[in-house]
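Hi there, hope your week has been kind to you so far. For a while now I've been wondering how a particular protein folds. I'm sending you its amino acid sequence along with the backbone structure tokens. Could you read through the record and tell me how the tokens relate to the sequence? Take your time with it, there's no hurry, and the full record follows here.
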Amino acid sequence: MTDRRQFLKTAGAISLAGGAGLYSTLANFSAQAADTTGYKALVCVFLFGGLDCHDTILPYDQPSYDRYTEIRASLLQDYAALPGGSTRDRDRLLALNPVNASQFGSRQFALPPEMSALKALFDNGNAAIIGNVGPLLEPTTKTDFENDSPILPARLFSHNDQQSTWMAMKPEGAPVGWGGLFGDAAIASNANQTPALTAVSSFGNTVFLVGNSTVPYELGADGVQLVGAIENENGDLPADLPPIIRAHMESVGVARSNLYERDMINATIAGLQTSDTLNAGLTNASSPITTVFPQTFLAAQLRTIAQTINIRAEMNSNRQIFFVGIGGFDTHSGQAANLPGLQQEISEAVAAFYLSTIEMGAAQDVTLFTASDFGRTLTINGDGTDHGWGAHHFVVGGGVNGNRIYGDIPLFDYDHANDAGNGRLIPSVSVEQMAGTMGRWFGLTPGEIAASLPALSNFTQQDLGFV
């Protein structure tokens, strides 16, 4: 039975990008008590490769900035050699003035000028920074780390494993992610008329959105991925052939005794029907979104997610979880040439997405957050940086308690309480604390959160208060 359930998850994820699943009542969520009144959506923006947090949240007070320029001298020389000069010069940085600035004493922080759109959201209280967040199984100090005394996440500093740990709290091979488990609670509470649209990815199949009954529905960056031979949009096929192809794919009139064959057929049918339903809703939206998005890959994904949220009433959807992604953050070399453009793409795409939620009257109901494999070392290797652990991330939305820095921004130096070596940060905040905060906002009960985030109980503060 276990093998068949795994088969169904895989089949649902790949069958026509339709995502079906069994959507049965789960033992873990037998109370079915999640609050699914109104509408709420979580949007994960995953930055594949490991975003350099030290080059995103930068030091701004003079002593910290001076020390930073000492440590990263050769990398800053690369920035200075760029056309137009260095965007890391202190007088070009965008100084932050969070309402909790006193928490950091005389230390000040800034964003690079490429992230001006996100800076505006922060200033207006619609974005917050979660400082030094990363995978933890229990609170971990530098002494703990050096003595190998805490239980540490497995295979630290490995791309695939830490991507999986961020998404599923376990290294590569984990069967379910915390987004999918949140989706299980929503499905068990009948939050959506079409359960297959509970978890939606525009970046392919992802463990983050896989639950025990939740299977990610896969959208393309341009919308619903339809079967060309069935749609026959260009009229290349004889008019009577597409219905025959669809009937064949659905095995119309064919009795199958094999359970796997029947499951695949049912997944295919459900996938086609879900695609038909969503495509019709997007095509016939009563008030299409007019917000202008940048012409970038990340913005295209977020535009498609916004269009899906825009028809939430037509789809009778109350709870949804979305996943988008962008790569290029493994900056072992060429960081000055590559990172600023990626930062600008994030900033402008996220800002446009937030404006679209205002346009559709859902700003208070949609929370977007960034995630990544890990941060990077403060130490440089010449023109790049190496794999780290803790990192700084953004949370954006009308319901965010913004213009604040939650968690901590450790010193831009070595040998401090959160330095695991080479400026690699030991996280101050666990991914599960960040996720648990959003789970409460999403409407999950304490029991549902505990079932989704098993290590959360090891941390005293289980709600960071940012939303």
